[in-house]
């Protein structure tokens, strides 16, 4: 039985098709939101056959799920500086840059909005953020080993505490997302961690 398009030969034609389609889907989402995402339009933008897109992905939620998986794979790795504050500041800066980027910010807004009313998109978004948090959690584990924060500190909760205020400003309050805010988020998370706020019961 033939393999699914996009599932074999890394670096081959299927990989190139997947890359082109996901880039086109991201552009369409950033421009028009989830309501304007159409598989035929994505195929046109990617310059691939419609049958290829429909056969490989089949639905808009499936395409968005694959786009999120690809974004998780392509995300920058964590920074390790030997200091929890500097590590978490690097994380805060990365999140801030993503959210203020015109294309990336619009893309995330569209996906978050879609996740509120589509279970498959929500699951894909949860997997994306779980992967990113898991990537940065070792920074906190290393800080525990160095004695910077107490044993039993929940590393995932510390990382979430860095990005949560940034997303609140991005989605709800409309407050500025500048370097000062990124620094404040990182410092607040570190101080709370040092105080034992994130120690598991």
UniProtKB/TrEMBL annotation:
Give the source's domain of life in one word: Bacteria
Alphabetized InterPro entries for the sequence:
Homeodomain-like_sf, HTH-type_TetR-like_transc_reg, HTH_TetR, Tet_transcr_reg_TetR-rel_C_sf, TetR_C
GO molecular function, one example?
A: transcription cis-regulatory region binding
State the UniProt keywords alphabetically.
DNA-binding, Transcription, Transcription regulation
Q: Which residues form the HTH tetR-type domain?
A: 15-75
Q: Sorted alphabetically, which SUPFAM superfamilies does this protein's record hold? A: Homeodomain-like, Tetracyclin repressor-like, C-terminal domain
Please give the DNA-binding region boundaries.
38-57
Record-given protein name: AcrR family transcriptional regulator
């Amino acid at each position: 039985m033939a393999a699914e398009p996009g599932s074999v030969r890394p670096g081959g034609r299927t990989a190139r098709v997947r890359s082109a389609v996901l880039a086109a889907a991201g552009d369409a989402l950033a421009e028009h939101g989830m309501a304007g995402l159409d598989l035929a339009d994505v195929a046109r933008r990617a310059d691939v056959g419609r049958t290829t897109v429909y056969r490989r992905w089949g639905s808009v939620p499936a395409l968005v799920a694959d786009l999120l998986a690809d974004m998780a794979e392509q995300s920058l790795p964590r920074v390790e500086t030997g200091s929890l504050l500097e590590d978490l500041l690097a994380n805060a800066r990365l999140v801030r840059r993503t959210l203020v980027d015109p294309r990336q910010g619009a893309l995330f807004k569209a996906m978050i909005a879609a996740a509120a009313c589509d279970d498959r998109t929500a699951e894909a978004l949860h997997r994306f953020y779980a992967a990113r948090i898991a990537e940065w959690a070792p920074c906190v584990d290393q800080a525990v080993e160095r004695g910077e924060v107490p044993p039993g500190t929940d590393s995932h909760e510390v990382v979430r505490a860095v990005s949560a205020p940034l997303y609140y400003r991005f989605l709800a309050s409309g407050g500025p997302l500048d370097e000062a805010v990124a620094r404040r988020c990182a410092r607040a998370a570190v101080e709370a961690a040092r105080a034992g706020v994130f120690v598991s019961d």
